[in-house]
## 1
Amino acid sequence: MEEKTTPTRYRLHLMVCAGTACVSNRSFEIKEALEKELKKQGLENEVLVVTTGCNGFCERGPLLVVQPGNIFYQQLTVKDIPYLVEEHFLKGRPVQKLMYTPPEEKKPIPVLNDIDFFKKQVLIALRNRGLIDPEKIEDYIARDGYRALVKALTQMTPEEIIEEIKKSGLRGRGGAGFPTGLKWEFVRLASPANGGLKYLVCNGDEGDPGAFMDRSILEADPHSVIEGMVIGAKAIGAQQGYVYIRNEYPLALKRLTLALEQAREYGLLGKDILGTGFDFDIKVARGAGAFVCGEETALLASIEGRLGEPRPRPPYPAQRGLYGQPTCINNVETWANVPVIINRGAEWFSKIGTKTSKGTKVFSLVGKINNTGLVEVPMGITLREIIFEIGGGIPGGKEFKAVQTGGPSGGCIPKEKLDLPIDYESLTEAGSMMGSGGMVVMDEDTCMVDVAKYFLSFTQDESCGKCTPCREGTKAMLDILERITKGEGTEEDLQLLEDLAVSIKETALCGLGKTAPNPVLTTLRYFRDEYLTHIRDKKCPAHVCRDLNVYTIDEKICLEVGHGCDVCRRNCASEAIIGEKNQPHRIIQEKCIKCGVCYDVCKFGAVKVD
Amino acid sequence: MIHLTIDGKKLEVEEGTTILQAAEKADIHIPTLCFHPLLEPYASCRVCIVEVEHQGKKELLTSCNTLVREGMVVETASERVLRARKLNVEMLLARAPAAEPVKKIAQELGIEKPRFEIKDPQEKCILCGLCVRACEEVVGANAISFINRGQEREVAPPFGEPSEACIGCTACAFFCPTGAITYEDLYGRQVIHEELNLGPATAIRVPIRQAVPMVPFIDEDACIHFKTGNCQLCVKVCEKEAINHDMKEEEIEIEVGSIILASGFKPFDARRIPAYGYGRFPNVITALEFERLVNASGPTGGKILLANGQEPKAVGIIHCVGSRDENYNEYCSRVCCMYSLKFAHLIREKTEADIYDFYIDMRCFGKGYEEFYHRLLHEGTKFIRGRVSEITDIPLTPEEEGKLIIRVEDTLVGTVRRIPVDMVILATGLEPSLDHNEIAHIFNISCSQDTFFLERHPKLAPVSTFSDGIFLAGTCQSPKDIPDTVAQAGAAASEALALADKGTFELEPITAEIDEKLCAGCQICVSLCPFNAITYNKEKHISEVNDALCKGCGTCVSACPSGAAQQKHFRDLQIMAEIEGLFID
């Protein structure tokens, strides 16, 4: 074999983020440019370029973190690379202009941990993010990976493992928050039918719009999930596991498959794990993208190759799950938490968080917020801290209006509740839910009726159609919301909408239907005025519902400031604007289709919307 | 045992009972749509919801799948339940406004018109999934499933095309509560059992109403279980546990001293005479079909009705269909005249119709038969002597419009007549049964020219055959009516008894025997023996004669090339010696 002279130690490690967001921002081109430039400067034996999983600060991608030193570079382009390499890596002068500068501040922050976005985060599930190459098992092992597995398999009995998880207070991170240890114990005590096997499933069917926690974990640290699953398998006595993962996550799928192969090669998976005589293997099941398959019984049906639709519970999967056998099903993030708990102990874990909710939770912060990205925060942190300190507030100096948590089935929480400490109970109390951790921030330009309509149209479209309330009810609710946003709603409609929402919540078969009315219920609870304005005054305060908008041109401004520039007339597709150049323009309301183009193109603010 | 309260009633039920079952026991009605007692609960319609209070928690649960628990307090019609149930039913009514069960429940709940959008006022499917579950759980064919999701959800076979997995059992239609699934053939007719094309039948039935023993059997060709291995619903519902699908048909060997053959007849297939239009005209029916029609337990409850449900105004009965006809059977079937007269009498009794009876000769040979014929003559039945040449529906005059016209030569008047009627009954003759030849072969008995079994002697041994111990009774020997059959059966029985009573059997003295030393095993004799009395012994490589079967005909003796087969008492040597003796004198 050819002896390669790769040095064992490097002076610098350049951690290039290769999460999906950064990859779509061409981080691989950055990596190539870096390698090319390093070679040119003769640094290839001193500086190593590493591709890592998602760093979390997706807003600022592509990202580069220089280790040691934790110097954080952001929004890189290929053009920046020669200068960066020469200045920083050759001459040792960090480049300030490529560092992160918070909005409305002048001084850049060089070190990652000093940035607000990272400062308040506590990393458990995302402990290895940005630090390891997810495609190398050695990297994971170097960061104490699989140590928990060794401990669990060689020093602990299954009962001890379950006891440890129970003591830690870990609850399901998929949304419902069922105590993980308790679930494991149920499966451990359940006996398989007809001498069959117990199964263990990782739910990676992340379907919430704007949520990407699971994808990120699987992309950045697939081994943490595998390790958690093997420990879980030992605890419940399963021999076969499945990871159900959306086919829309090609990168996560690729890295997970690779990680499984590596783990098998290292004897950490498969037959006789670590020589302890314990057998456990994991298969990957790919989902076709139906949202309802995130519901556990539908997911199991999908793995079995049947129609992906939920069935009534009980029996719970812990009693009769995959192929009718006791099955333990947990979310990606839950599994990723397990090795840390075994390693550092339940006591340490249970110190983080609130009385009822322990540990941390990963949220994907999206919407009208400065620092879009993935954050892991301790339970009990307030929404204000997440949105304004970590998230950096609302862009454009706009005012915060509401935050939607828990995906399409969650609720909208208004600004009065910003100081709410987040845990499973408090969010449910506020009419929303933890969900899988989506957090959509909305500013003053958002119409809450429209938001409710948007989320409901998603759940209505994704309803499997099995039970009456979800299939017919969500459609009936959507029809009412359509009417309201068109200005055709009545106050009886509002009453019917509320009745429907309550009834669907009470009588739907599965979690999808039971939570589908949440966006409507919470917006009705906190923003009832907006509904009434739509119904009584036929107006949309945020001017989002186009059918309710009336566009007019202030002739005075048009003439005096804009000098009749004629841009609006030229852009009007329905020829609803009349007026000569240098003359004031006017909109013929009968012809106006309310597309809003004139409003957007008028630089002088002459077009008014009401 | 578990204690719970439903609507204030205190109950004690077994563990594992659902709330719905418990309520049923207490005579409390909970409306259901997607539930069926023979299928697993599906809990999709959400109509059977009830309010359950357990351990301080009050929630709405579906009663069809929720098991009872100790101390549960159930309200089946609380305000909260009714509000939610009403909305769910209202939504279902908007989806399927033509579904009767939904309409009924909606009426009970006081819903007049749904407040939601109605897409199709004719829609009947409520997506309860009973058909899909029946096909999966009961039939095991999995030929239909739900496709699409949400509002687009519907029941369909794969890719919307007729599925090969479908075994045509119509279980889906049987389970469908709203009639959204119907089963029709290509011509839009309801698919029913083939038996006489007169009514539907199930896989479990009594073969005929006069069956002995009068017990139901499972028709393996129609039973779902024998096609897919599933179903067995009959086992679930049979409280006596009398059904066993594992029972196999078996062949039983019984040693007997004598055998009576009574293998019966089959009616002549009237389709063989195209001119009579049987099978083309729905109102041309055979005698057996008419017999079923007038039967009080028949499809019309004994009323004589046309295919369109109306009473006929004129009926023609045609004698000798397939009998006394050179083209079909030359013999007289003997029973047709008398049953035709009976039909004419029944029609006279039950309808106002004119009756025409087309005969060649009236053969009323039995006791009291002639008197019955005379009664019919007095009753006003019109007897026309002559063979019907054709039945047509092409009218020549306005009176013939919409009628069946019988063309016949009235030999008494000497003209060809056209007689319009509404219904024609064909008095089909009797033919040997389908497996007649097979039976003849097995028992080695001969058939006469008319293909019925041949008796040993028409006058002296009318119930015996050429094989000793095998007797004939009934129409397998020749067409005959019930009194004659009973008489012949009695005779055959006493012959058989006489033989059995004797206990022994006298062999013919003159039979063939085969000399083991000379036999070359060529088996020529085996194929020639008309009585199947010679078998080939594979071990010894020789042929052997069964003395009980051999009639001493001598065929084998004359055919044996090696001279091994010899007739006892008439051996070649004996005959030669006798001839020589003649010459000595």
Note: Residues 435-502 of chain B form one domain.
## 2
Amino acid sequence: MIFIKQNIKILLIISTLFFSFYSNAETKSDKLIEQALSTAQRGDTQDAIPLLEQAEKKHPFHSANSEILFQLSSAYIDIGQYDKADAVLKILLKRYGKYADRIARVDSAIIAQARIMTAKGKHNEAIQHIKNFLKSNPGSKEKDSAYFQLAAAYIEKGDYEDAKKLLKPVAANEKSPMHDGAIYLMANIAAKQKNYKETEKLMALLVKTSKSRNAKNSALFKLGDIYRQNGNLIKAIDQYRRIKAKGNDPEAKKLNAGILFEIAQTYEKLGHPLEAHIGFDGVARLYYDTELSTEAWHRAILSDADFGNFDRAEKSYLDFLKKNSDKKPVNDVRLYFAQQLFERKDYSNTIYNLKKGLKEFPDGIHAETTFNLLGITYLTAKQFTEAEHALKEFAKKFPDSELVPLSYIYLSESFIEQEYYNRAITVLENLINDFPYSDEAKEAANRVQEVYMIYADYLTCTNRFLAAIEQYRKITATNIIENAAFLIGDAYMQEGQFDNASTAFMDFIGRFPESELAPQAKFSIGEAQMQAEKYAEAEETFNSIVSGGLAETNPVLPYAQLQIAFCKYYMDDVDGMSNALAKVIKKYPVSNEAGDAYYWIGYLLRSATEYKQAAETYDNLIENFPNHNYAAEAAYLAGESYALDNNFAKALEALKLAFNKFSYSGYGVYSLVRAGDIYNQKFNQLDTFLTEADKLSTEKPNAKIFIDIAKAGVLMHANKPAEAAAVMPELTIEKIKYNDVLGYALALQAGIFNEKKEYQKAVVTAEQAENICLHSNIGLDEALFQHARALFLQNDYESAEQFYAKLLSECVVPDNYVNAVALLDQAECLMKLEDFDKVINLCDQAIRLRSGAEISARAVVLKGENMYNSNEYKKAAQYFQRATILYGKIEKYGIPAFEGLIKSYEKLGLPEQAAEARKKFTELYPKVQK
Amino acid sequence: MINKIKIFSGFAVLVLFTVIIAGADTLVLKSGKKYKGTISRSAPGKVAIRTRQAKMEFDDSKVSFKLTKMTPPKNAEKAFKLIKDKKYAQAEPLFSKWLKRYNNLPVTWFERSLYGVGVCLANQGKTKEAAPILQKLLDEFPKTRYRNEAEYWLIELQLSGSPGPELEKKLKDLVENSQTSDRIRAKAHQGLAKYYESINQPEKALEEYVSIIVLHGDVDELQESTQARCADLFLQAGRTNEATFYYKQIIEAYPNTGSAKSAEKKLLSINNVKGE
């Protein structure tokens, strides 16, 4: 009690405070006012206005009434209802104007009036209003706020410098309640003045210094916008992602969810799928009770697929299906997965997802696209049967789908890919009939024409030319009909129907006289006539091309002129050919055909034994067309022609030049061999050649292997097989590289085997050589010779004779000795096979080659033996006698000649002559047993 | 206005009661009995109070700790200011004294002592000593207002040891718990990222780092290092588009720093490869 008495005053105050606290806190008016104010402070203007109006109406005498009125006026200003705002402020000032020293909102209201004036465009009035306020209230706590509003008025008026002067001190004072606002306004001024660096600097300062989360967020927003507008998304997103409303209330969550969703979308646009996924997933998980969460979950699944994490994306998707009754938001997920997987060419998983999608949403809005894509995926995966089935099913299930015509196109493409052209054409024709007005029908109409062409080309490639012609004839499309018409002629040519080909090409020229292919068609007519051996007509055709007024640069012209030369040749008009070839050179001196012409003139001159001129013609070819296809051969032939002209020094020079120019070609090596042969055979200087060859190897180390091959060849021809074998390098394609050289080298190798009496090896190697030489057009003579010889030396006369016959009919054997041996070997084979008729002729050919006494001796003895074997003893005796007289001292042929002569005389019943011959035989060869 | 009135009333009441009870602890039993004197922990589960007359001991179960009042330490304001000023070495002995004074009592000042000692030790790098104290803070005061700070440091401290699956689970729980603050969640992501890097799972680490960037951009102290790790890990994964983006962001956001210089070098190497 004493305590109560002593402290009665304090207790009274406390109890009053308690009473007022508890009673006030619990009244309905408080609740309404609290709700109205908190709604307004949250910035939820539309909701706040009716609550504030109600609070003012119902509780005008409440202690918080001045705050209610101020917030109401602010809300009206925010929504542009300036007159209402002004009226409310007037009420506030009327009620509380006298208590400005105690009620803070009085000064705020006066300042707010200036805000309204500014908003209404009455800048000067607003400026004057604030100036008056500052003058009459120099110590107002709202001074900074007044400066701020004054600056705002200046800004609206466009007077930025005055505004900045007012704002700078406020912005510099971190304790000022208007500090953040002042910086914000200064940043706005900088932005208006397009001083973006200053704006950025001020906003960054605000972000750094502001203690208010809201101000910081606003600054980050503004900064982000500045960067975004300047196209700097990297910096923009770095600002946006730092924005976050504090607290866990629905508004904060809504804001944060919205921002995060935007951020995720921006990352998505930037091509950052992981960040996008985490952003969307964050909205779905952290703000699961916001409106955006479902869409965010959906997008999180999709962006995870973008990132390539399909397993997790599918798991999340299945989780969504499980947890949500409304599954529609994710009905596109499987299709999206499939599209992503399709792009990654993972067709098996694409198909898996499409099938699943159709099962999960059989009637969903994406079912049509899904079904269609299933067919296309099967197609792309080359699962044609499934594709056909799926696309047909699709057309059946969605007959009205816009995708059906396209699926026909895809189906036809699948048939084309499988080379089922007729089925492709049928599908396209069905499309044209079923959907005549669709864009795809137009496409199909074009495509079907192309398919005729593709099909025809396919038939041509498989040698079914007449069937191809049938397809070409179906083509009517203007863009390809010209080609098709031309190809008909081509196909007839390939079929060997040259008359039809001519007709087709003539038809082509008739229909497309201006075509770029017309000269070619004319040319083809000429070729067809040539093929049909109608050379006169062909010549006429080629002449018409040449004189047809085509541009001089048209490549057909020199070729046609060249063909005229061949027509002349086939008509046995050699002079005509020569003249025509000369025309090629004269009229088209730089054309490739001019090179051809030189080559063929050389050929004609050689045939006419005009070797010197031939050699000079070849020289011209090499000089004018060093890279011509015939250049290497011409270089060799120049040397060969000089040799035929008996100008061996010049021949050596030309052949060595041929090797130097074409060291890595068959003709180069061949030329060196021929040079070696000449050294040996004509000058008896084999060693000189070998020394020169070694010198050449030092000068051209890369060509050493080819020089060694040539040395081996020369040594073989010089009948030195052991030395040849010693210098012959190992022959592998890796080492030789050039097929024509390898073929020739193998042929030489076969010769070495023959000399070593390794005939089987010789046969195998010669066969290899032949296979290569057939394509390289050089060394075939050597290969065939060695092959035949290997067989001959094994007494396989029948096979040997065939190879010799092939050699002598298909090849020019440049070495007369080799040529003679071949002739005699063949003759001997025939004789052994008791085919006597051609033997004498072959032997005579060999003799005419004048390849030395031994060859002649063998030929004459062989003739004698042939006569003896065919029971013509008299003729036999004559040949044998000639042999004994001319070559009797050559033991190898002298002995059989004497023996044949004795036998022949005996058969003729001339014992005296036989005895006389025997006597001479004994004198000459006393040790030979009879 | 209403708030101000309320605050004023509350303050007045507080002043009044503070004056009344100043100078001694008040132990209130559940039976309603009160004792004034100095309260201490005498043994586990036992609370002792030394009054002017005697020393008494009670089972915890008989004490109403809600109503029991402990006198605050004299240097409370100074100790917290030292922490604010990051003078941890000076603050630590003050908080350690409190720890002894309020030893194991379920009262606010013991909670504050644990926090103070734990944070001071952690900031001085005394990992081993700090971790159990902070853990104790969380165990004894699960609703403590220092939970975030304690969790933050615990993650940091545990990572500096040898993190294992247990820590991974704990960090995942923190990430998934909706009550976890943004700062702690961001820290937990960082912890997971570092853990995954330590066990050579860079893809998982990258996702955790990206989570900090995308979800917790407002946690300033983690941004620079996280952006650098993101850039490096994206580069390692061959995603140069993203790596370039982050290197550029580092250069823009942290100019003239070591991170920016390193980013410039790496950016150059990427561009060299791209343009080779």
Note: Confidence is low (pLDDT under 50) at residues 1-26 of chain A.
